[in-house]
Amino acid sequence: MSNYKAAPISRDNIRWLAKMIRRKTGYEHTLYFPIVEFVELYLPQIMPDFELEIIPYEKMKKTCGETKPSEHKIILNEAIYNKAIDGDGFARLTVAHEVGHLFLHDSDSITLCKLKPGEKLKAFEDPEWQADAFGGELLASSYLIGVMSVDEISEQCGVTPRAAKVQKSKL
Fold this sequence. Notes:
- 33% of the residues are buried.
- The strands form two sheets. This protein has a three-stranded mixed beta sheet.
- The protein has helices at 11-25, 35-46, 78-85, 89-104, 127-139, 142-145, 150-157, 161-169, and strands spanning 4-6, 51-55, 65-68, 73-77, 110-112.
- It is mainly alpha-helical.
- The protein contains eight helices and five strands, in the order E-H-H-E-E-E-H-H-E-H-H-H-H.
- The radius of gyration is 16 Å and the shape is globular.
């Protein structure tokens, strides 16, 4: 369970943001979103002080990635980064997830919180859910995958079958 609570964001608002990013980069009607190219080429244009740091696997074994929104910085495990370059669905979604944190969260939108006994964090207030929803929407946009099968979504959008199934279930 997360000890962080984010400002509420609806799935519709997350979808809108992902679609705007796709539109601004010219990938609005393209199934396969080039997430590594986006991070390397487009993010520095959007955020001139953006920094991508790749950490050797040996130093970051237990973490796939992390984001420091207030610093405009994404840190990726080198193994994840290389797999994302190679088109691995899990790695691509990891990178998109970190991009989600970059766009959705900052020190004003995230708070450290202790929930009351029995209280559960609502999904739309969970920063990890928000980043997952953003990553899924950026890579397998709901407006593009409508009638596609889970296998088609996975193959054509470059996501895992599990991620494709989640996206398909949220239509």
